[in-house]
Design goal:
heterotrimer; A: alpha/beta; four-stranded antiparallel sheet; 12 helices
Chain lengths: 337, 314, 306
């Protein structure tokens, strides 16, 4: 049962140099009670996607088409006052840099109080109780409620941000790089807590990150995003074991693996395309070691290759062979077109 | 703080003693005999070597004795003390009002970004800031006082009015009536800086992450603007308070002269024009002291506003 | 992060005369984008022209009391023979206004030049040497900050003598601190940059380092603060003249205003006398603001502008 279904979503930015499609025809599903990982490099549109779902976009951005079905209701088409009812109560966000997301001149407790009483419409006493409860939930010392954001460590601030996101018991949490700014030990603790919370509170989480090791550790299913489009979707275990899109294969190569014998990391040469004037064919083709002529003209659609497994590649059927070739470093020294 | 005051006092002393021109020329009647002139010089201590004069000067200033005015023939401290409340009320009042109206207007202009209101508002604010304050005062005086006769044209009180106490004077309608035009002039002059600064800061703050988060949290826009954006945007504006104080005391001098407002500024100008050193010195020192005191107040106010600053001090 | 943190300083340019040329090019760039800056430059040009061609534009000598036969042409309203009317002793206001551009621009530019110069030198020396030199200079700046500006100007000018140059001198003595602060900050960041280090290693003397390598990168900042100082200088000169401590041999706009005030122009409702000089001052100072705002936008671009 899909809690959130995104159909052909397009989000545009109007800049002085023209219009950029940061999200270009994205199809995605988030199931109840799962952690969905969304991985991609900086600028691929994953943050914009999250912002679009909760519909808080910058002044020069807007949803240009598509549907965002949350429990059957299209959020993209809702008038503002109705959308406001979903914000934080049904869908909440854990932002990337928690220290910037907390108002520096108010104490933590006041910021909890604000969201609980104003958006949550709780009474004072109930708000106070809930705030304490939330601290315990995320493992934040209750005394920290009296502190200002700058008096807390990075880990504490992140926990506070998670607690704030959980304040009104939303059904969906969009976590945008929630642990990127933290050291590895703290990362581990927070990610583990996130998974526990998912079970305890039957939440759904969309975990956006550029780090596939985080995905491997925490997510049930994962989606890979590139240049505004989704290129691969599937259960994390499957995608890791048998990636079907060359980009995913390349990503795997770029991250060190503790289990495999020591080997050189193979980077993906080149850079993502300029979204002001995207290339006509597959967006990854210029950097892809397996691109054929068709790839440069025809943009591949995201197709279902097996139940729950999708990839946007013309050569997805040959994935098994391509996977072996992907291990060879010289394949990736592609003359970038 | 005291260091600054001491430096100022020393500079003053040197200026007044070393400048060309016999200080008593304006005061000494040529019909005085030489003995009388010498007696006067002795009385004012002008026949002592410079370093001795300096020592006396320091000691006297520390105890508040600033000598006797040449022109008024009264103790300087008494004259400046009487002038002080007028200056304080005008300056403090103007600074506070200018800050309040300036920040509100600045926040308003930031809110109305991209509209016609902004495109006319900004040049208007700049124009007022570019205009000489005494000229604005002159125009207000000409229109509202001389032409329309709505406001009095000078001084703090109508002729013949007597007050039982300072408090009574300050709260009387007549005083406020006299205060109106000089106050408005000074406010117009001072509000440009907080306005532009607040607007600039608001525009910056509204792009900050926590404002975006506040929207995601479903908080109403008005609350976000006021309690989050404005509150944060206010901080750098508060640091400008000290700067505005500096401007205000300069502007004050001029405004006092335009409206014949009997404050320290007017006293200073008269004293300097008449080469009345002790009086000029006293007036200047007191103006500097007011500046320093107001700066101190500004520092305290800022550390109260910004929790990060007081934290650092802890 | 905003709110009290260090502002982003402009990218340093490579040393040499090329820096000067780049400054000019960037200035032209500003003009292309910012309409207000263009307006500012136009206003300046107009006034410079007026000041230079004053004898040609002004119909009368500004000091001359005009008579028609036996009658003194005093307090004449604006008309064809006297564009802005006359003062109470029969001087043509329009001519005074035209000639008034000269002291205004002279004071403005020279004071700004000296403020920029002193501020830059102090900033470079303080930033480069650091240590006790820095401490002393910055302490000096702090003290300067505590002194109320206009009162001190009045006192100094009154006792140094009411000449235009004394006004300039006083302003230069007091206004350099802002420039010095910012320049110093930039020098501090530059000092650690590669090209300065390598020049030092190659044996360049401190003087050479400061002049050839650091100074050209400071130029844009110096220009910016210099241009801000122009308006400030003109306003101060006007205020000093208005209070009666100005140079009475030169007709400046402040002087006209003082004249008007003393001669009861306010109660006589002679708006033609005291309104135009103020407008002139306002225009020139505003022009300065526009230009420096446009230039500042170039040096410290705000990322939020779309």
């Amino acid at each position: 049962m899909a809690l959130l279904t995104i159909e052909d979503l397009r989000v545009e930015y109007r800049t002085s140099r023209g219009v950029t499609r940061a999200v270009d025809g994205v199809n995605l599903e988030v199931h109840e009670g799962e952690v969905l990982g969304l991985v991609g490099e900086s600028g691929c549109g994953k943050t914009t996607l999250g912002r679009a779902i909760i519909r808080v976009l910058p002044r020069n951005a807007g949803i240009a088409g598509g549907r965002i079905l949350f429990d059957g209701t299209d959020l993209a088409a809702l008038p503002e006052p109705e959308m406001a009812r979903y914000r934080w109560r049904e869908i909440a966000m854990v932002p990337q840099a928690a220290m910037d997301s907390l108002d520096p001149v108010y104490r933590l407790g006041d910021q909890f109080h604000e969201v609980l009483t104003i958006t949550g419409r709780l009474a004072r006493a109930a708000a106070r109780a809930r705030a304490l409860e939330l601290c315990d939930l995320v493992g934040l010392d209750r005394r920290r409620l009296a502190a200002y954001p700058h008096e807390l460590s990075g880990g504490m601030r992140q926990r506070a941000a998670i607690a704030l996101a959980l304040a009104l018991s939303p059904r969906l949490i969009l976590a945008d790089e929630p642990v990127t700014a933290l050291d590895v030990v703290v990362q581990h603790h927070i990610l583990r807590r996130l998974r526990q919370l998912r079970a305890e509170l039957s939440l759904s989480v969309v975990l956006v990150t550029h780090d596939i090791s985080v995905i491997a550790q925490t997510c049930d299913r994962m989606a890979v995003m590139y240049a505004g489009k989704i290129v691969e979707v599937g259960r994390t275990v499957d995608v890791f074991a048998r990636p079907q899109h060359p980009y995913t294969m390349g990503l795997q190569n770029s991250f060190p693996n503790l289990l495999r014998p020591q080997e050189m990391l193979i980077p993906i040469e080149g850079a993502p395309p300029d979204l002001l004037t995207p290339p006509p064919g597959c967006r990854f083709a210029p950097r892809c070691p397996f691109a054929v002529d068709r790839c440069l003209v025809d943009s591949p659609a995201l197709r279902e290759l097996a139940p729950g497994r999708c990839a946007a590649c013309h050569r997805a059927e040959e994935a098994d062979v391509l996977r072996l070739h992907a291990r060879e470093a010289q394949r990736w020294r592609v003359p970038v077109l | 703080m005291l260091l600054v005051l001491w430096v100022i006092a020393t500079i003053l002393f040197l200026i007044f003693r070393l400048m060309p021109g016999n200080p008593l020329v304006a005061y000494i009647d040529p019909t005085f005999t030489t003995e009388q002139q010498q007696a006067l010089m002795h009385e004012f201590g002008l026949d002592l070597p410079l370093w001795q004069q300096y020592a006396i000067f320091l000691r006297a200033s520390a105890t508040g004795d600033m000598g006797v005015s040449f022109t008024y023939r009264a103790p300087v401290w008494k004259l400046v003390w009487e002038a002080l409340p007028n200056t304080l009320i005008l300056t403090l009042g103007a600074v506070v009002i200018a800050f309040v109206t300036g920040t509100i207007s600045g926040a308003f202009l930031a809110w109305k970004r991209g509209t016609a209101v902004e495109s006319t508002g900004i040049p208007l604010a700049l124009a007022v800031r570019a205009a000489p304050e005494f000229w604005v005062g002159m125009i207000l005086l000409a229109i509202f006082s001389f032409s329309l006769r709505w406001f009095p044209s000078s001084g703090t009180a109508s002729p013949g009015v007597v007050y039982a106490s300072l408090w009574q004077q300050v709260t009387s309608l007549d005083f406020l009536h006299h205060l109106a035009l000089p106050l408005v002039t000074l406010v117009l002059y001072l509000q440009g800086l907080p306005l532009l600064l607040m607007r600039s800061n608001m525009l910056d703050v509204m792009e900050e992450e926590f404002v975006v988060m506040a929207r995601m949290k479903g908080l109403p826009e008005g609350r976000i603007l006021l309690r989050h954006a404005a509150r944060n945007a206010l901080l750098p504006v508060a640091t400008a308070f000290a700067l505005v104080i500096g401007y205000s005391l300069g502007g004050n001098v001029v405004v006092e002269n335009v409206f014949s407002w009997p404050g320290l500024g007017r006293l200073l100008v008269r004293a300097v024009a008449a080469k009345d050193y002790p009086l000029a010195q006293g007036a200047f020192l007191l103006i500097a002291a007011v500046a320093i005191a107001m700066n101190l107040l500004a520092d305290i106010a800022y550390s109260w506003l910004d929790p990060r600053v007081s934290y650092a001090k802890r | 992060m905003r709110n009290g943190s260090v502002q982003v300083l402009p990218r340093p340019r490579t040393p040499g005369f090329a820096a000067g040329r780049r400054a000019w090019e960037s200035f032209r760039g500003v003009l292309q984008h910012d309409r207000f800056a263009v307006a500012g430059v136009c206003i300046y040009l107009v006034f410079i022209l007026v000041a230079a061609a004053a004898p040609l534009i002004a119909p009368y000598d500004p000091q001359q009391t005009i008579t028609k036969g036996d009658d003194l042409m005093a307090n004449q309203p604006p008309g064809p023979s006297f564009l802005l009317g006359t003062t109470n002793v029969g001087r043509d206001i329009f001519s005074q206004l035209v000639y008034g551009a000269r002291p205004a621009l002279t004071v403005g530019f020279t004071a700004a030049f000296f403020v920029a110069l002193i501020g830059t030198v102090v900033g470079i020396v303080a930033g480069y040497y650091g240590g006790w030199i820095d401490a002393v200079l910055m302490r000096l700046a702090d003290v300067a900050f505590g002194i109320p500006f206009l009162p001190l100007v009045i006192v100094l000018v009154a006792f140094l003598g009411p000449s235009l140059w004394n006004i300039v001198l006083t302003m230069a003595l007091l206004l350099w601190k802002d420039t010095a602060r910012v320049v110093r900050a930039q020098v501090l960041s530059l000092r650690e940059r590669g090209f300065v280090e390598s020049a030092r290693v190659l044996g360049a003397s401190p003087l050479r380092l400061m002049l050839v390598h650091i100074a050209p990168n400071i130029l844009p900042l110096a220009l910016l603060y210099g241009s801000l100082a122009i308006g400030w200088a003109i306003l101060t000169e006007a205020a000093v003249s208005f209070l009666g401590f100005g140079d009475s041999t030169r007709i400046s706009w402040g002087f006209i205003l003082q004249d008007a005030y003393i001669s009861q122009a306010l109660s006589n409702g002679q708006f033609n006398w005291f309104v135009p000089p103020g407008i002139c001052i306002m225009l020139v100072v505003m022009a300065g603001y526009f230009i420096s705002r446009g230039y500042e936008e170039l040096l410290f671009p705000r990322l939020r502008r779309q």
